[in-house]
Write a sequence for this structure.
């Protein structure tokens, strides 16, 4: 600053001296004025260059005045502009990160302005409501989501709860349910969040059905038991009558016990880790177990004098190929035995039940139970593994069924990577077959040479 004032004073002095010499006192005054105008012109020119630089170039290049006041001003402006540009870039970066996070959200997100226009939405929201960014941005949300329930929700302006609307892909056969909620924020803006609650609602409906079914299944034998207890307490009975009632009571108690056992099995299956590949069971042993169960049940269910069931099982053979199965031996036995005992329970005495074990070309194996029972109509087949689904309730009950057998079988097989197929012709019989994957089968270990003589 000192130098600038000094230079300006020297310029004035110089011009004044030159003017004095040329024109006397008036010349000196003119020289001072000319020096002031020259300085003014010079500074204005430099100022104009700085303004033009600011207008055209911004902070991209160095300012036009490297020295002096204008130099300092342009350097400071350039620094400030640079800082602002960096802030803008950082804000944009943050905005992108925020939008990327919203994009990754499993919920639908729609940003609405104060007038209810859609400013941005993520992919999930587009999927829920069938939105298209090119077509629907800047549109009123009420014009696009025309469900009466949502319109009423918008009109009521009470956003303390969700409103449930059908999703874009909803059909009567496969309903899709979307929960929508608006959250006001900022200056009258709103955030619309949507959640696919189809699976949640289905699980809730299944839970309700399950509780209702269990209650019903337990209430029936309980009512019978209470009735008998009342009779035993209040009526004078002969010892034969007493024995008969006690036998019937024991049957009902048995039924409840089976039901509770099956329920516990199901919950254990749901909660326990998947069976690994380190426990191997010989298939022959499994088949022998199933055979013993089937024969015992057949004896129990065949009335005196009636022809027994004809049971055919694969003969014990020194077979080594794919003859060991990996998994939980108790679970595998319960699943396979369930299929065999079902065949016995639903096939009238004298009927034939054939059990087979075959290796498959892909290295897997198939366990199949064929019976000559009543068969199952096609419409029941997809529902047989549902809990408590029964075609003939009284036959199931009379033979000690709980309606949970095939649900348990399905669970066990899923846990072992196996699949269940059911084929049936009403009036002719059914085939229940299970395919085990190659990964769960291995050849039986060869006996070590000399092991027998040792
Ligand atoms: P349940 O304890 O009633 O036998 P399951 O889950 O084992 O329950 O079987 C479900 C239903 O499938 C049975 O009630 C029965 O109607 C039908 N079912 C199962 N196996 C057979 C079969 N081999 N032949 C005919 N119907 C069968």
């Amino acid at each position: 600053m000192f130098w600038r004032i000094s230079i300006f004073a020297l310029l004035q002095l110089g011009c004044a001296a030159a003017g004095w010499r040329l024109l006397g006192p008036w010349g000196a005054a003119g020289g001072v004025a000319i020096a002031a105008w020259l300085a003014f012109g010079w500074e204005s020119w430099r100022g104009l260059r700085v303004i033009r630089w600011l207008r055209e170039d911004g902070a991209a290049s160095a300012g036009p005045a490297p020295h002096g006041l204008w130099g300092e001003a342009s350097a400071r402006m350039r620094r400030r502009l640079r800082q602002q540009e960096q802030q803008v870039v950082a804000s944009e970066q943050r905005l992108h990160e925020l939008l990327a996070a919203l994009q990754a959200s499993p919920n639908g997100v729609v940003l609405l302005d104060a007038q209810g226009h859609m400013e941005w939405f993520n992919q999930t929201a587009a999927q829920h409501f069938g939105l298209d960014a090119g077509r629907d941005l800047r549109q009123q949300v009420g014009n696009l989501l025309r469900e009466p329930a949502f319109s009423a929700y918008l009109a009521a302006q009470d956003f303390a709860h969700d409103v449930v609307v059908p999703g874009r892909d909803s059909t009567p056969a496969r309903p899709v349910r979307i929960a929508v909620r608006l959250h006001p924020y900022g200056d009258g803006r709103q955030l619309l969040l949507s959640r696919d609650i189809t699976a949640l609602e289905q699980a809730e409906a299944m839970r309700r059905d399950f509780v209702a079914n269990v209650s019903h299944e337990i209430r029936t034998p309980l009512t019978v038991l209470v009735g008998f207890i009342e009779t035993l307490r209040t009526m004078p009975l002969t010892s034969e009558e007493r024995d008969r009632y006690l036998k019937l009571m024991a049957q009902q108690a048995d039924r409840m016990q089976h039901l509770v056992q099956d329920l516990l099995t199901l919950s254990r299956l749901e909660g326990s880790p998947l069976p690994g590949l380190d426990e191997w069971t010989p298939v022959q042993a499994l088949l022998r177990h199933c055979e013993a169960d089937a024969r015992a049940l057949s004896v129990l269910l065949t009335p005196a004098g009636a022809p027994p069931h004809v049971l055919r099982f694969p003969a014990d053979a020194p077979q080594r190929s794919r003859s060991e199965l990996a998994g939980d031996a108790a679970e595998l036995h319960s699943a396979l035995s369930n299929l065999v005992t079902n065949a016995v329970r639903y096939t009238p005495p004298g009927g034939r039940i054939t059990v087979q074990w075959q290796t498959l070309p892909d290295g897997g194996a198939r366990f199949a139970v064929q019976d000559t029972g009543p068969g199952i109509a096609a419409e029941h087949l997809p529902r047989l593994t549902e809990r408590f689904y029964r075609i003939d309730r009284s036959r199931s009950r009379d033979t000690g069924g709980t309606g949970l057998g095939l649900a348990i079988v399905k669970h066990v097989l899923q846990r072992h990577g196996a699949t269940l197929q059911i084929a049936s012709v009403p009036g002719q019989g059914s085939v229940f077959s299970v395919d085990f994957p190659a990964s769960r089968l291995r050849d039986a270990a060869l006996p070590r040479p000399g092991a027998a003589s040792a």
